[in-house]
Write a structure and sequence with these properties.
Blueprint lengths: L1 E3 L5 H7 L4 E5 L7 H15 L2 H19 L9 H12 L13 H11 L6 H18 L4 H12 L3 E6 L5 E3 L5 E3 L1 H11 L8 E4 L8 H11 L9 E5 L2 H10 L3 E5 L3
Parallel strand pairs: 1-8, 2-3, 2-7, 3-6, 7-8
Antiparallel strand pairs: 4-5
Helix pairs in contact: 2-3, 2-6, 3-4, 3-5, 5-6
The structure holds magnesium ion.
Length: about 260
Amino acid sequence: MKTITLLTDPQLISALDAAQVVACDIDHTLIDFDRGQEAATREIAKAISAPFAKEMNAIFLLLLAGYRGTKQTPSNNKTYQAILQRIYDLQDDTPYGKKMWSREAMAIVAAQNINIAITPAQVEQTRDVYWGAIGDFSPLYPDAKKFIEEVKKRTITLFFTSGSDAILSVRSHLTLHYDPTFSESYKQKRLVGLPHARKVFIADPEGKINPAFYDRVEKTIFTITHDKLRVLFVGDSYTGDIQEPEKRGYKTYLIKRE
Ligand SMILES: [Mg+2]
């Protein structure tokens, strides 16, 4: 694994010369998801209310911090664990496990926290406003634009690899249900503004840290090459983007944003 701070890092660009395949993460690697998150919060404030939007944003940021295990919010943080449990408790049982990143669940917990009633239709409205804003207002980082141009100058097959957005359907009494086909097709829609890649792999249903996801990606890579040193994996999450490809012998680049 090599660690870089920009996708225009000379090490990465020169590695492209020998590459046949690039498999690149999207959120926080190519697009500035934080900008999208801010925009989504603004749009939800307009659609529902400012206190609700603020609370939902706070829940998202707490989950992100706990998931990443920051100093302030280690993954055993009690508030983080309690919110996570409430998010899981809203979901019915499926073979795919509970989904922590469900914005539907975050919306319901936010409404409970600030003591307002919310209907299933409002939860879905919040979800649609949220992901609409993420799609519209998460720009490509400038270095990502240049990186993709460099990839396209060469005869490289470009894939995007992206986690599940954990889109859940909202049922009466505010219970949530995960259907992988619905979740994946919903996410495909928010990615239409991205530059073209040969294929976009979305980690519904298995989740990105699951080796099964990389089995699926690898199967397609093997139709192009078996030379793993000519395949580059790029992403901002060690556990989600790097760990498994590195274990399998691919070249990996961890980008540290900020
Ligand atoms: Mg990412």
